[in-house]
Structures are given as structure tokens and as C-alpha cells.
Design a protein that fits this description.
Chain lengths: 429, 269
């Protein structure tokens, strides 16, 4: 049977367990992680993830079994302890939060590894598989695990649903929340408990080391696509679920492949794509916007040069050689050609016998740029008392930027003047 | 409205000392503000103006003294208190619209778990209209200018329908016309017996804006009606340089790690 169909038909109970388990873990971690991300506490997840290891060992030592309820209880306790320790260090000493997190993380993890080693050397047969918590064991999830995960996921979702507006306000403006009488302390404790819970179940899929990635990365990726918090959290949840499912699928197709790391690779790829290709916030989109602006500036500068030539001999539509244009605006010759051909495509200039001339459209646009340039120079000298020899460079920027509304206001403020500070005529259409 | 309620002061601050890192930044403040006043908290940089209103609202621990609002402890009257924090105190790149932020003003009345409904939305829109921001309701907050951010915060405070308003530099980054409009709005509110307490920088406009002033320079220099408190002598005392001895002693307390009141060890912030 085709592995794709075999996997997504979910006939095999093992496939079902792994797929559902991975999706539950990643999606609920992504939702809770969105609030850690918005609270700018991204590193906290990493601290908790490392700090639960001694708790798991403790749970095993005290109960003598690998029953998930005991292990999770132990993990929950030490996870919380680590946060109390971070808060204590920050509030009672001069150590800053990042340093405190680093300290707590390594001390707790060190103790955890120590305990794990002791347990492994003890010869206790029940201990085998405890080290799964280090790197995750998503491919070996069973029905019992799923019950625990499902319960925790439901707790997380219901709590976030009920306290959505409180969590949002706390992330945006904590002092205000306190001032209007919200039980800030209580809400913070609830959110922190959710994070600890999410980490505790999450590490069973991806392990201690990679946990921070599935907590924070979906939210960071989702933030690129939207400015609405609900959409952001929904997207983070979807990104998380997709990575969970893909991780499970990849390790099913290639059984030598571990599920957890693949989950992290998929979610990182989503983040990478978001970083580059998201509209508006993405790198590519910003690059294109910048390039458009640069091109507009070059276009208008060449149109302006043609206009200035026209002013010299009172013939705006006369054909000009590239050399004439270059006498008004120094530019690389190839670059000038590229700009001129672009202007020709846009209908602002015409080419005949290797000479360039403005079209009517081109003249109108050039005239507007020249007008704004001279108006702005006048504005700076008359209204702001800036020396006339200092105003040219500012005007060179403003002329490409001004909106028609501001242009009209500028004309009004200056009362439609005829000449700029250098006695050049201000052209009106 | 009965008469006893009328004479209850809006705010009573009794012997309040506030310390950062054990160093007192406000010493033994005693003051009362009657209801229906538009009060200005004035003083030089580092005088503790923001610290005072934060301490009054319980956002900072007190090293000594107590605060009463409408003759009750602050936690009993939280739903009657509104706050406009400094604009820079939040990250404006947060994923929220202007309307989302104004709706936060309704959260106190809504209580836990409940979501804002149609009535809350209408109230929020009405408050946006009052500050001239209704056209920006769906704008992402990162796209606002400084003055628009300030007006958004003001609308959020109005949406609370509180009785006493604490505003931390609400005119920072606001243009002159908007400032006039806001003051007009605040005056109308005090006419409806609301109390508004404003941290303010500009001495020039203070005379026109406020009918009650609090002059502060790590200690209380003067407070009361504009006519009696806002005098040349008091201003001289407030702005004429810090009291060096007082700040030297404060520094000493911090360095020596000294509890500044016997028995009360201030918590570090």
C-alpha cells in the first residue's frame, strides 16, 4: 500500500497514537507558547524544559514505576520550582533575568542528569526508557500516554479560552491590569502552570532540549503573517499541528528517522519561510518595497533632469542625448539606460534616433517633482529659518515622498509663491 | 447625593514613603484631594511624580503609611479607579487594534471569564469619538503616532466609567490642539464630580489647566487649591535644586542596606 494512504487512513492504531499524540502536543504547546512569546518570556520555556528532568527522576525514584501520572507530577513540581527560583533571584539580587534563567536552567539540568545516571547504574529494570525524556519518544507513544496528553490538552485549551482576555491584557499592559483590579498574581500563576503543563507533556515527544522550539517557534512564525492576536494564535496552532503531523509521517516513512527532531525541523522551516516571504513583515516583501522606492527616486530624478534641460532652452519636449541628461544628473551610463527604458515602458519618455524626450505625461510628472522641490526649499528657508544653501538635500528627498494632500497644504501655507529661494520659477500646472 | 459622600475626599495619602532598592524616592507624603478636582502633580525630573501615583494605586509597595480612596482601602474601590499609564510603558508592536485596546477598559467591569459584548463595543466607540479617534478604531496600534497612542489610552480610561482617574503624562507627544481638546474633556468630567489627577510637566499651562496642585520634589513641597499652593515661593522651593542632604541620606540608606523604618523591610523591586 502507498505509505501516504496507509498513514493518513489512520487504520493502524500505532499510527493513530503517534499522529494524534504529536498533533495534540505541538498544537497545545503552540497556543500556550503564543502567550510566552507575547510576554517576551521566550527563554522561560527553555528553563522549565530543562528543570523538569530532576522532577521526572524524582517521580520515578519515589514511585518505582514509569507511570506517567507520577512522572508528570514530579516534573510539574520541579518545573514550577525553577520559575520560583528565577523570580527569587531576580527580585532579591542584582542578577538580571537572562543570567538567572541561565543559572537555574543549568543547575536543575545538571541535577537531573546526575539523578538519571544514578538510576541507570542502579540496575533497576524498570528504568529503561527513562532517558527518552532527554530526546523524546514520539514514535513510541501508546494509548495510555494519549489519555494523559488528551486530558492535559483539554485543560490547556479550556483555560486559554476562558482567560483569553486576561492573558492578553497581562501581556500588553500588566500595570494597567493591576490598577483596574484584575487578580494579576492569580492569572500569572495560572498561565505559568499552563506553560509548565505544556512543557511537561511536550518533552515526551521532542525531549528536553528541543522543547523550547515547539513552544515559541509557531508563535514567532505566526506573528509575521498577522496583526490580530486571535488569528496569530490560530495560525500558531495550525503551524504546530502541521509540524507534529509531518514529523510523525516522516518518521513513519523512514523509520530510522526520529519524530521529535523532524517536528522541530518542519516548524523551523515554516518559521524560515514566514521570515522571508510573509507579506509586509517578511524580508522579501520589505526588500521589494525598498526597491520600488529606490526605482521611483531614480525615475523621478531623470525626469527632473529632462525638465531642467527644458527650462534652459524653454523647450520641454525637445529630444536629448544621454550625455545631455548626464550633465544634469551624474549616474552610471548603463544605469541611466535602464532607467530610461523603464520610463519608456511606463509612457513617460519616448526614444527616437537614440535621443530621449519627455511625453506630456512625463512632463507633468517632472513638473510636479520640481514644484515640490522648490516649494519645500522655500518652506525651509521662510518658515524654519534654515540657510538657503542647506535646503537642497532635504528637498531632494521630500520631492519623491510628499502626498498630494501635503502638497496642497504646502501650497496653501506658502500662499502659491512664484519663486524659490534661489530665484528659480515654481512651475504650476 | 448625600452630604457625607460629598465631603469624603477622593484621595487621602497618609505618611507615605516609597523606596527603590531601599533608597527612599518619596519621603513622608501627606495629602488629600477633594472630589471633583482637576489636580496637577508637578515637580522636576526625578521628583517622584510617577512614583507617587503608582504607589497610590498599589502598583509599588509602600515603605510606610497608607492610602485611602473615597475613604476606603484601594482594593475595595478598584472598579472606581482608572489609570492612564505612560505611553512608553507598553510595546506598541503588540498584535491589537485600537478598538481592542479601548475594550480593555471594560475588563474590570466585565469580571473574569466574560467576553466584551455589543454594549461594551458601543461604549468603546463612544469613548473613541470623545477623543476624536473613531476613524482609527480598526487601525493596528503600531501604526499610530505618539499623540494617537496617547488618545487611545485616554479612550481606554474613559471606557472604564470610573470616578477617579490617574494620568501619567497624558500630554507627552500630543500636539497643542489635541492637548486643548483633552483638557476640555477632563474639565467636563470634573464638572460631573469626577476626580482627575494628572502628572504634568509644563508650568506655563498648569495655571490654566488645574484647580488643584501638588508640588513634589522627593518630598511634598505644597498642595492645595491653585491660588494658595501655586506660589512663586513654593515653585522656587520645588524647582530650585534638590535638597542635597535628603538625597545624600537616601543614598546612605541604600548603600548600608538599612531598613528605613524599624520592623518594615522594604521589598526590592
Amino acid at each position: 500500500m502507498n505509505p501516504l494512504i496507509q498513514f493518513f487512513s489512520f487504520q493502524d492504531p500505532n499510527i493513530r497514537f503517534v499522529a494524534i499524540g504529536a498533533v495534540l502536543l505541538t498544537a497545545s504547546s503552540a497556543i500556550v507558547g503564543s502567550f510566552t512569546f507575547l510576554n517576551k518570556k521566550s527563554l522561560i520555556g527553555d528553563a522549565i524544559a530543562h528543570a523538569v528532568l530532576p522532577g521526572i527522576c524524582l517521580g520515578f525514584l519515589l514511585s518505582g514505576t514509569k507511570n506517567p501520572v507520577f512522572l508528570i507530577s514530579g516534573a510539574f513540581v520541579t518545573g514550577w520550582l525553577s520559575l520560583v527560583a528565577v523570580e527569587f533571584i531576580v527580585s532579591r539580587t542584582r542578577i538580571k533575568e537572562d543570567t538567572a534563567i541561565g543559572l537555574v536552567l543549568s543547575v536543575f539540568f545538571g541535577i537531573g542528569i546526575l539523578m538519571l545516571t544514578v538510576i541507570q547504574k542502579s540496575g533497576n529494570a524498570a528504568q529503561s526508557g527513562l532517558d527518552n525524556f532527554l530526546f523524546g519518544k514520539a514514535a513510541a507513544l501508546v494509548g495510555e500516554d494519549l489519555m494523559v496528553f488528551g486530558t492535559v490538552a483539554v485543560i490547556l485549551l479550556v483555560t486559554v479560552y476562558l482567560l483569553f482576555k486576561e492573558f492578553t491584557l497581562l501581556a500588553f499592559d500588566k500595570d494597567y491590569a493591576r490598577a483596574i483590579g484584575l487578580p494579576v498574581r492569580w492569572i500569572s500563576v495560572t498561565l505559568t502552570s499552563l506553560i509548565v503543563l505544556a512543557v511537561v507533556i511536550g518533552i515526551q515527544a521532542v525531549g528536553v532540549v528541543l522543547m523550547a522550539a515547539i513552544l515559541i517557534t509557531p508563535a514567532a512564525a505566526a506573528r509575521f503573517w498577522t496583526d490580530r492576536i486571535r488569528v496569530m494564535i490560530m495560525l500558531a496552532c495550525i503551524f504546530g499541528a502541521v509540524s507534529g503531523l509531518s514529523g510523525a509521517y516522516i518518521s513513519f516513512v523512514a523509520p530510522a528517522m526520529p519524530t521529535g527532531p523532524w517536528i522541530v525541523i518542519v516548524i523551523s522551516t515554516i518559521a524560515f519561510v514566514s521570515f522571508f516571504f510573509a507579506p509586509r513583515r517578511g524580508v522579501v516583501s520589505r526588500f521589494i518595497r525598498q526597491r520600488t522606492i529606490r526605482r521611483t527616486i531614480h525615475n523621478e530624478n531623470i525626469l527632473k533632469a529632462l525638465y531642467h534641460l527644458g527650462e534652459n532652452d524653454k523647450n520641454f519636449l525637445a529630444p536629448r542625448t544621454p550625455d545631455e541628461i548626464l550633465s544634469k544628473r551624474s549616474l552610471d551610463r548603463d544605469h541611466l539606460n535602464r532607467v530610461l527604458y523603464r520610463l519608456k515602458r511606463q509612457g513617460y519618455v519616448e526614444l527616437s534616433k537614440s535621443r530621449w524626450q519627455l511625453t506630456d505625461n512625463g512632463k507633468t510628472r517632472a513638473q510636479r517633482v520640481v514644484k515640490i522641490h522648490r516649494l519645500w526649499e522655500l518652506y525651509l528657508t521662510t518658515q524654519l529659518n534654515i540657510a538657503p544653501d542647506h535646503v537642497h538635500d532635504d528637498a531632494d528627498t521630500i520631492e519623491h515622498l510628499l502626498t498630494p494632500e501635503l502638497e496642497a497644504e504646502l501650497e496653501k501655507v506658502l500662499d502659491y509663491p512664484r519663486e524659490d529661494p534661489h530665484r528659480a520659477e515654481i512651475p504650476y500646472p | 447625593m448625600n452630604t457625607t459622600q460629598d465631603i469624603t475626599p477622593a484621595l487621602e495619602v497618609h505618611d507615605v514613603t516609597v523606596a527603590f532598592d531601599r533608597k527612599p524616592v518619596l519621603w513622608n507624603i501627606d495629602l488629600t484631594i477633594p472630589q471633583g478636582k482637576l489636580a496637577g502633580v508637578m515637580g522636576p525630573n526625578g521628583a517622584g511624580k510617577s512614583t507617587l501615583i503608582k504607589a497610590v494605586m498599589g502598583l509599588l509597595p509602600l515603605s510606610s503609611g497608607f492610602v485611602k480612596i473615597f475613604d476606603q482601602p484601594i482594593d475595595a474601590v478598584r472598579n472606581r479607579i482608572s489609570y492612564v499609564p505612560q505611553r512608553e510603558s507598553v510595546d506598541w508592536d503588540f498584535p491589537a487594534s485600537v478598538l481592542d485596546v479601548v475594550l480593555m477598559g471594560r475588563y474590570g467591569k466585565l469580571g473574569l471569564f466574560k467576553r466584551p459584548g455589543k454594549a461594551d463595543r458601543e461604549k468603546a466607540m463612544e469613548c473613541l469619538r470623545q477623543v476624536g479617534m473613531e476613524a482609527f478604531a480598526n487601525r493596528q496600534i503600531s501604526q499610530l503616532s505618539g499623540g494617537q497612542q496617547q488618545r487611545t489610552f485616554l479612550a481606554r480610561a474613559l471606557a472604564q466609567e470610573a470616578d477617579i482617574y490617574f494620568m501619567d503624562e497624558p500630554f507627552a507627544g500630543v500636539d497643542a490642539a489635541t492637548e486643548k481638546a483633552i483638557i476640555q474633556l477632563l474639565t467636563t468630567m470634573t464638572e460631573a464630580r469626577k476626580t482627575v489627577i494628572v502628572v504634568h510637566h509644563d508650568l506655563q499651562s498648569a495655571q490654566q489647566y488645574f484647580d488643584w496642585v501638588i508640588l513634589l520634589n522627593t518630598r511634598l513641597v505644597a498642595h492645595g487649591p491653585l491660588e494658595t499652593a501655586f506660589t512663586q515661593q513654593h515653585l522656587q522651593e520645588t524647582y530650585g535644586g534638590k535638597l542635597t542632604l535628603l538625597s545624600d541620606v537616601g543614598e546612605l540608606i541604600r548603600r548600608e542596606n538599612f531598613p528605613n523604618r524599624e520592623g518594615t523591610v522594604p521589598k526590592m523591586i
